[in-house]
Amino acid sequence: MEGIDVNAPGTTQLLMGNEAIVRGALEGGVGFSAQYPGTPSSEVLSVMASVARNLRIHTEWSVNELVAAEAAAGASFAGIPALSAMKQNGVNVISDFLVNVIMTGTGTGGLVLVTGDDPSAISSSNEEDSRWICKWMDMPLLEPSTAQDAKDMVKWAFEISRLVDNPCFVRETTRLAHTRGKVMLGELPTERKTAYFPDVWDMCKPAKSRFTSGPFGILHHQAHERLKRVVPVFEASAFNTYEGPEKPELLIITSGVCYLYCQEAIAMLGLGNRAGIFRLGTTWPLPEQAVRKQLERTSNVLFVEEIDPFIEGSVMEFAASLGASLPPKTYLGKRSGHIPSWGALSTDLVAQTLGSILNVPYKVAGRDAAYSEGLKEATKMVPPRAINLCPGCPHRGSYWIFKNALSIDGRHGLVAGDIGCYSLGFIGAGFFQERTMHCMGGGIGVANGLGNLKEFGFNQPVLAIAGDSTFFHACIPALVNGVYNKANFIFAILDNSATAMTGFQPHPGVGRAATGDPAPRVDMEALCRALGARVEVCDPFDLEGSTRVLLDMMADESGGARVLIMRRTCELVRARRDKGRPYTMRVNPSVCAGDSCGCNRLCIRVFGCPGLIWDKEAGKAKIDEAICTGCGLCADICPQRAIERKAA
Amino acid sequence: MKELTKEPLNLIIGGVGGQGNVLMAQLVGQALVQRGFTASVGDTYGVSQRGGPVASHVRISHDRSYGPLIPAGQADVILTLEPAEALRLLSELGSPSTVVVTNSRPVYPPDVSSGRATYPSLEDLFGALKRYSAGCTVVDASAAALAMGDPIFTNIVMLGVLVGADVAPLERQDMADVLTERFKGPVLERNLEALDRGIGLVRAARTAGKP
């Protein structure tokens, strides 16, 4: 198969939404791409990095979304088209920069920001709708429905950015990001741009030569005015389409993948002659005249969009502004309760809603009541499948150590958690140890508060945790704060040498760049020591030794922020690198006492590694050969020492 | 199967995170597009790198783009790497006309190992799958992969099973071509062997199943 960087216009490839975004950026002449990983948009930079050398593009995993967006803007100021993708949370991280950059403009390069929203929070801690930032920041917003749209819109977004001299936003959602679809390729540009930051005194080059956010009043006004340039372009855009009867009973206004749900629901219910779909691809600023033309078709309107009523609110606001000149209409959507206000939508949900509005009951095809009832009953035998840390995961060792140390200490200490694989610490996978969990860097942040409550009689040990990538992303200022303000907490960095949750992307601590080239390695313990904090480095698989170190740190009366680095490579990374298993594991059936042990199946019920299973017939624990990674950790938790490890 | 028998043909490829079903679905999608079909492959996986239920929705059409997810009751084929997942998916997406093809080897969830939940007997499980589908083919793809020395080949064995079961417009050569593009040398040889073992498994299962 040809790669994503092949210059073969008119040929087709099966591309994931995120790959289509990369292809669109390549066709749009992107020269600079910076990103911090975040599901569902992580693959954008991974794929871009895979062709970076060939196409001489700068790609980088930045330390966080803010630096990524700022770096991309810097490239755009110097005339190089730049792209930065992020998940919805990242949009919050870059907002302080955005509120300023919309006043300075983005220059001649063009800056495209891609956000991957996550309806139903499938891989997120929230399901924020990031589209609101576009209203807030006077930024144009595009919403692709298919991989083809994603490719075409991202290419176009560079032109839009240059037109309004501001960033152009492209919003995808998980279902688009992670769905592969057929994409027809366009041409790759051959012209290579030169980077140059325009000189203030160079009168021959009238390009903008200053990007400073002041004087405020006039610049804010200009940002509003610049957005207006895109209005006629959006009004005429072929991404806004209508399909259906001339005068439908019901007009659906939709965007993104919901467009496909609407199409399929209409076909399923046979409503093609009663309902019409207006698909908005250019969502903000609202192409008002195009919307008005559609509204005039009918008196009933249904909004179908994920997550918040963004289009719904914009259209109703516009309709209100028309006063009596627009005949009254019934507006249905999230406000009316016809479309859920949270969670991802689906063809089925849309079909149910359409069916109830137009009195065509929706029935699941091919199923009668007896079948559905019988199948539902039979499916009760299927056990739930809780998510878990992987077999061999170092975090299981870390949490085991935290649990035991906090318990031995006896002062009801707690773990202030963060965002990463170890977020599973709030469920059984991490022995329910994690007691707060918010945003990147949020754990050490709240520890700064909890750690300074001594005056109020607070003496519970506070153990803030974060992964190695999260440490670089958002924890350093909070650690400085903890040292400076003498907050009494221990900050455990769960250093597994990867951004594991999102797909093992490298970060400043691993010595490797996005392209795979060697990179300088930032030494986290030297950095923490330089701040004046006590720093200890432990192995999460040394249960006894590490617990002792942690207890000693908790007993440290000198207070202030202390750092415990729990270091062991992510098992999935190790397995790829080393192949094979370090140990061959076995439960010795003559030593395992089964249910008569009194441990109450500690290894399976509490420790919970998926590689340990219960042998019903023997009434004893057993190793699942296909799943066990041979890490050897469980040998140390069995009170009978029945689990044996032998060097493989 | 050479031709597309239905528009669209909805195929689910399911399993448990870590079993390799996302790669399977990607290879299937690629083979379909090379055959000239329009295909969309929607992966549904949550925060679980491993251990959670995972399913890819493959929608095969002559020329149309469909939504990323198969609507309730509209799966034509459910192919799974884990048998309980087949029933879970059948209950969401199946109908009496759905064809089920599954690997027989259970992956026990932690709740089962700990005794908080029970895993059904395979007899009950396959009984329910047969009763509520248009047919259920059961193969031990894990054993075939272990016979090759590594359970990692289970997903490629199941690709062979998909081809052998003749439930999608794909033939051995289509999958072999896609594998040849992706792998080289001895690794390719091993994957082609896994593919052929899968095709053989269906033949054996169907012969054994005849009265």
Give the tags.
heterodimer, A: 648 residues, alpha/beta, Rossmann fold, seven-stranded mixed sheet, six-stranded parallel sheet, 22 helices, 24 strands, 35% helix, globular, B: 211 residues, Pyruvate-ferredoxin Oxidoreductase, domain 3, six-stranded mixed sheet, 8 helices, 6 strands, 18% strand
Structural classification of chain B: alpha/beta
CATH classification, class level of chain B: Alpha Beta
Based on CA atoms alone, the radius of gyration of chain A comes out at 28 Å
* Oligomeric assembly: heterodimer
Count of distinct structural domains of chain B: 1
Terminal CA distance of chain B reads: 25 Å
Can you write the helix and strand succession of chain B as a string? EHEEEHEHHEHHHH
Going by CATH, the homologous superfamily of chain B would be Pyruvate-ferredoxin oxidoreductase, PFOR, domain III
**Biggest β-sheet: strands ordered side by side in the sheet of chain A:** 3-2-4-5-7-6-12
SS element count, helices of chain A: 22
- Radius of gyration of chain B from CA coordinates: 16 Å
At the fold tier of CATH, the topology name of chain B is Pyruvate-ferredoxin Oxidoreductase, domain 3
The outline of chain A comes out as globular
Strand order, biggest sheet of chain B? 2-3-1-4-5-6
Number of strands of chain A: 24
- Beta-strand percent range of chain B: 15-25%
Q: What would the average pLDDT of chain B be, to the nearest integer?
A: 92
The tally of structural domains of chain A comes to 4
Tell me the number of strands of chain B: 6
Largest sheet of chain A: 7 strands, mixed
